[in-house]
Amino acid sequence: LDKTAMEKAATRQDILTKPQGALGRLEEISIRLAGIQGKAIPVIKTKAVITMAGDHGVVAEKVGNYPQEVTPQMVLNFVRGGAAINVIARQIGARVVVVNMGVAGDLPADIRVVDKRVARGTGNIARGPAMTEAQAIQSIEAGIEVVNAEIDKGLDIVGTGDMGIGNTTPSAAICAVMSGQSVDKVTGRGTGLSDEQLQHKIKVIEKAIAVNKPDAKNGIDVLSKIGGFEIGGIAGVILGAAARGVPVVVDGFISGAGALIAEALAPQAREYMFLGHLSVEPGHRIMADKLGLKPIVTLDLRLGEGTGAAFGIFIAETSARILAEMATFGEAGVSEKAE
Amino acid sequence: LDKTAMEKAATRQDILTKPQGALGRLEEISIRLAGIQGKAIPVIKTKAVITMAGDHGVVAEKVGNYPQEVTPQMVLNFVRGGAAINVIARQIGARVVVVNMGVAGDLPADIRVVDKRVARGTGNIARGPAMTEAQAIQSIEAGIEVVNAEIDKGLDIVGTGDMGIGNTTPSAAICAVMSGQSVDKVTGRGTGLSDEQLQHKIKVIEKAIAVNKPDAKNGIDVLSKIGGFEIGGIAGVILGAAARGVPVVVDGFISGAGALIAEALAPQAREYMFLGHLSVEPGHRIMADKLGLKPIVTLDLRLGEGTGAAFGIFIAETSARILAEMATFGEAGVSEKAE
């Protein structure tokens, strides 16, 4: 990060017409944005949420309540603007980029989806690896390509998002392996499991880890053995954004799994990440701690798609505008604090 | 609240293309908005933050670090658009209504400020009452008049805000009296007091309560003895908005004091209130609990002006748009959860 830009931003925060520090996290966010963009006054105008879709072979183990056909159905819903992320993106003035990273079912050929499909869904991680090492690398590279294309169009901040029936299962597996926590501590109810279903899901995840023996320190190994194509794509978006100096707002539990993979591959990428929100999924707090990131909002969301990232983008943009547009004590003729 | 509208909103939330409950607090907020507006699909388009300014005789006791001249200076800053609330209001598309409830110093005659000045600052509550009972009633009525005029212009949601050097002192006094908590538990550092200054502030507030003996159950008595003109104005905005069926987003610690007065006068007003954010001031959580309200965001703000309310307005608007604009399972052709 650009330390000079950060110092200038911090100095300016202290002469704006408010008590020093009174804008709390907004000040902190604006200063880090300055460091990421290398500008004393960061600019957030063009915004995008990249929503990556993929399917998961582990649904054969009945870890969720929704049929796999929902993944392509929701991709169509994104393209038509009817999903939650579309509404929130309209509200914050961001574009939604929908990416097919590995949907199992068919999608109409002529829809506005970025086609990066690695395969038609992953393997069943309870019985073997999710994908080959080459596919893991391909999924990350696809994410880098997608975010690079968006940055080339103009992009001051990007949010990650996901869609994939069953994807809290690989995400919990990644969380357990990379944080060292036990599976029962990081596994949640996803779209709404019963107590019995939750216990079954925990057993499936424990089995997936035992069968695959991923190396917690090796991001590619973890991704290929217990990951997902959209999780790899999200890791790529994060790495690509960081490499180009673009702030990236990480969404919830599935995006957090992508962030853990990205951080394992390039620890310095963490400095470019913001955590949009804290999800209801219990493992998300463990991910946040592992990444050293504090969520921007906590609205009890558990939807994914980039919905929590979108709120983080909005607040980051506001923090940058405050730094740019507020009057200083001198400009406004306001008396400063008595010493 | 309109229970039929709330039931319809809740039913619609359950058929939108997401797992039931996956949007957490956004769903809950949209349903209460439906009840307040009496519409199955609430509409939030026109928005305002009403920022009320007043001065406090208790500054003679040296409870803060900023000189009293800052109050009118900041009023000018609001009018010129240079304060934090102006920037955030531009970001969320809300108008800022600046009200002189009781500034001590002079303001230029020709500026765009609603003039409701009750007096040039309150009395020193460490030595006697803040104002007369008639002035307390006048300040509340002024708030009702201001919000009524704004509702007549078109207003779907309103946020409260404050400006007044020294006003965390009466707010902490009100918090202690109305919550029954001890003064040291509800008193904070305001704009940034040292440990020693904080201890002095606590003693001043204890003295104010001992000297005035406010009746905790009587909102007018509390306001007149240990309140402030902007706090009365805020109580009036809340009561006026509730009476007209307009949702009101309460800002931080000073607005919380106004909300406690409003609730003492009309407990049902609480159903129309949202809590925009949780302030750093330690008493704010106690106010939130007493009001039974959960903050929408927590960004470690301690500025007032309506800055926290503005974020709450934005998220409330988003929640209403989600309810209105998301596709249902049927519309989108998305399969529902297996039973």
Features of the shown structure:
homodimer; Nict_dMeBzImd_PRibTrfase_sf (chains A, B); 2 domains; Rossmann fold; alpha/beta; 7-stranded parallel β-sheet; 5,6-Dimethylbenzimidazole Phosphoribosyltransferase, Chain: A, domain 1; 14 helices
Explain the overall architecture:
2 copies of one chain form a homodimer. By secondary structure, chain A is of the alpha/beta class. Chain A has 2 domains: 3-42 and 323-332, 5,6-Dimethylbenzimidazole Phosphoribosyltransferase, Chain: A, domain 1 (Orthogonal Bundle); 47-317, Nicotinate-nucleotide-dimethylbenzimidazole phosphoribosyltransferase (CobT), large domain (Rossmann fold, 3-Layer(aba) Sandwich). The first copy, chain A, is 50% helix and 11% strand. The first copy, chain A, contains 14 helices and 7 strands. Chain A has helices spanning 3-13, 24-37, 70-80, 84-92, 133-153, 168-179, 183-186, 195-212, 219-226, 229-243, 253-265, 283-291, 307-325, 329-332; strands at 47-54, 95-102, 114-115, 157-163, 248-250, 273-277, 295-297. Chain A has a 7-stranded parallel beta sheet. In chain A, strand 5, helix 11 (253-265) and strand 6 form a beta-alpha-beta unit. In chain A, helix 2 (24-37) packs across helix 13, helix 6 packs across helix 11 and helix 9 packs antiparallel against helix 11. The longest helix of chain A is centred in the middle third of the chain and has 21 residues, at 133-153. Chain A starts with a helix and ends in a 7-residue tail after the last helix. The interface between A and B is large, with 59 and 59 residues. Chains A, B: Keywords: Cobalamin biosynthesis, Glycosyltransferase, Transferase.
